[in-house]
Design a protein that fits this description.
There is one protein chain. The protein has helices spanning 3-21, 25-40, 45-49, 54-72, 75-86, 94-107, 112-129, 134-147, 155-166, 173-194, 197-202, 228-239, 279-296, 302-316, 318-321, 330-348, 351-360, 365-380, 385-400, 407-420, 428-436, 442-469, and strands at residues 247-252, 258-263. By secondary structure, the protein is mostly helical. The chain has a two-stranded antiparallel sheet with strand order 1-2. A hairpin with a 5-residue loop joins strand 1 (247-252) and strand 2. It is globular. It starts with a helix and ends in a 5-residue tail after the last helix.
């Protein structure tokens, strides 16, 4: 049995054990990286650790640290209320605001993980508070980032168009951008319908500016006067999430009696006023803006910048930051870093190249094309999308040069297949969404993201191949 095949089988075993025995997959992956690296690939420790994602480790720690401070001092509460005001209380529009925001950030040049790192903590905080499915909100953030990710001035777009030009292939920058935007927009629409978006529309608007109890009355309509308890309950049921109870409030029945009811949010007429800006919140908002500017305008590392800003806030307001380090998603950090270290071992020993070349050597162009799309999707679900695109497009050159497959459609299909799967919890974007979700069952949310990512991997490459590649064949 070849070393490459052994390494793939070991990866399958890691998945099976992690799923059936509830062992952290990252810890298993570190052990597998050590075993395969030493015994099969003849790598030393330096070779094994070459795949450790140090930059992603810092991003995950830094961003979750900064937003843990923002949650502790109430800044995220203020941002949630500001988002409600922006859409006049229409909770159903918030997922689309997040989709558009991350799309705009990546379209003007933000790296996709940086945009997700900025938006996801705010979006997920809103989702938990207002009974929106975290899976829906996380998917909207990631698909928004990928929807804008291939504009001609974006990072992804510049890289792919540069590879196409270097390989001497015909290209179409506008088609590439629109292909990614439309695919991600369609997926976002499907997710919105399937995970409670229509029920959110039926809720109407939540009160703003303190009317009817303030923004905390998440479940009631601004005009109907119905209890927020029933609204929040229906939202939770529709989205498949469970809201965190905040207390017990009296609920009046149709017979006029009252009974204690546990609600997800306060529904009393004397609910607290909308959160106000304080010096700590102003400083935290300034830090968040500084993070955006540093990443987008000065191309600074999102993780290092986040940690620096978090340390400054911690020093200035230690009482708000005392528990922030403990709220860093350490289990998620272990999981992601372990899996990506093992993928690095696969890359180091040539397994990924071996699989790609094996597919490229197939004599049936259409079959080779769809297999390359699937390889891009599967590997990108665990590794760098940019790295996979940089490897797959050159592998596709030999049969693209034959003229039987349209180069423009094939490049777009490869690009979409390699990026749309970033909802996987093993990818950078999926990991950021998982780490950013407050007050959720992380194991359950991890499984949801993994299942959803698996569905995207299974379905989307075939669809984009059918739509973008098959019409250009012959």
């Amino acid at each position: 049995m070849s070393p490459e095949l052994i390494s793939i089988l070991v990866l399958v075993v890691v998945f099976v054990i992690a799923t059936t025995r509830s062992v952290n997959m990252g810890a298993l992956a570190f052990a597998a990286a050590f075993a395969v690296g030493e015994l099969v690939a003849d790598l030393d420790a330096d070779g094994i650790f070459a795949g450790f994602p140090g930059d992603l480790f810092v991003v995950l720690v830094g961003v979750t640290y900064l937003f843990a401070i923002a949650r502790a001092n109430g800044t995220t509460d203020w941002l949630v209320h500001a988002a409600i005001r922006l859409v006049r209380g229409r909770v159903a529009l918030i997922p689309w605001v997040m989709f558009a925001l991350t799309g705009a950030l990546t379209a003007i040049g933000a790296v996709s993980p940086a945009a997700v790192a900025i938006v996801a903590p705010i979006a997920l905080s809103f989702a938990v508070r207002y009974g929106i499915s975290p899976l829906l909100m996380g998917a909207m953030v990631v698909h928004g980032a990928q929807g804008g990710g291939f504009s001609p001035i974006s990072i992804y777009g510049t890289i792919v168009n540069g590879i196409v030009e270097r390989e001497g292939l015909p290209g179409n920058e506008v088609f590439l951008f629109l292909a990614s935007l439309i695919v991600n927009l369609v997926i976002a629409g499907v997710m919105f319908v399937l995970f409670g978006g229509l029920k959110l529309w039926s809720q109407g608007a939540v009160p703003v500016d303190g009317d009817g109890g303030g923004p905390e009355d998440a479940g009631c309509s601004g005009n109907s006067g119905t209890s927020s308890a029933s609204g929040a309950s229906s939202a939770s049921s529709a989205s498949g999430t469970s809201l965190k109870p905040t207390g017990t409030t009296p609920a009046t029945s149709t017979s006029g009696t009252t009974s204690p009811t546990t609600t997800a949010v306060a529904d009393r007429p004397d609910s607290p006023a909308p959160p106000r800006l304080t010096p700590a919140r102003i400083a935290t908002l300034t830090a968040l803006v500084a993070l955006v500017v540093a990443v987008l305008a000065f191309d600074l590392d999102a993780g290092l910048t986040s940690i620096t800003l978090a340390v400054i806030l911690s020093a200035a307001w230690p009482e708000d930051s005392r528990t922030a380090v403990g709220q860093i998603a350490w289990s998620t950090v272990l999981l992601i870093c372990g899996v990506l270290t093992y993928v690095g071992v696969l890359d180091e020993m040539g397994t990924i190249k071996w699989a790609g070349e094996g597919v490229g050597g197939i004599g049936v162009p259409l079959l080779a094309a769809v297999l390359l799309c699937y390889i891009g999707a599967i590997v990108s679900a665990f590794a760098s999308s940019v790295g996979i695109m940089g490897a797959l497009i050159p592998l596709a050159v030999p049969f693209l040069a034959q003229g039987e497959i349209g180069a423009v459609g094939m490049v777009a299909a490869l690009a979409v297949s390699a990026t749309v799967v970033d909802v996987s919890p093993f990818s950078t974007n999926g990991a950021l969404v998982l780490a950013a979700a407050p007050d959720v069952d992380r194991e359950r949310f991890f499984r949801q993201l993994m299942i959803y990512g698996g569905i995207v991997v299974a379905v989307v490459p075939a669809v984009v191949w059918l739509v973008m590649v098959v019409p250009g064949f012959g």
